[in-house]
Amino acid sequence: xxxxxxxxxxxxxxxxxxxxxxxxxxxxxxLSGFSLYLAIAISLxxxxxxxxxxxxxxxxxxxxxxxxxxxxxFGQWALILTGxxxxxxxxxxxxxxxxxxxxxxxxxxAGGVAIALVTYLAFGALLGEQNGSLGHDGKVxxxxxxxxxxxxxxxxxxxxxxxxxxxxxxxx
Length: 172
Description:
The protein is mainly alpha-helical. The protein has helices spanning 3-22, 36-47, 50-65, 76-91, 102-126, 134-166.
């Protein structure tokens, strides 16, 4: 990733974070909420190549760590999303080209969001955070996964075009 693209991606994640916190988080979805930020971040991670997936995951995690509403230790989201980026980067060749099959891509994004949330809960439990009851956490996880499956196909084509537009000639 070029330095210009890193700053562009970072600015995009800050703008997306503001949209998530000021608009999307105020909507009361049935079965819990929806994290537009995580869905788009994991979609962008899946679009990237090996190094780009790691950098994108790290940048998305750092922006999420800056949330004033987060009680998690600083760096927890960066670690989780970098790990998700690593999983996508390592397995990219074995699962073929995700972008050629939209249904498979949406399933992998929803799975990535679910894995990120489960990992967040596991790390929180290891660090002694108060996560809530198992039933409530399961409801949040199920609701977020369902809403990711519903909304990801809506923003996926626009996200792919914006990402292609942001690439330099060397990165294409």
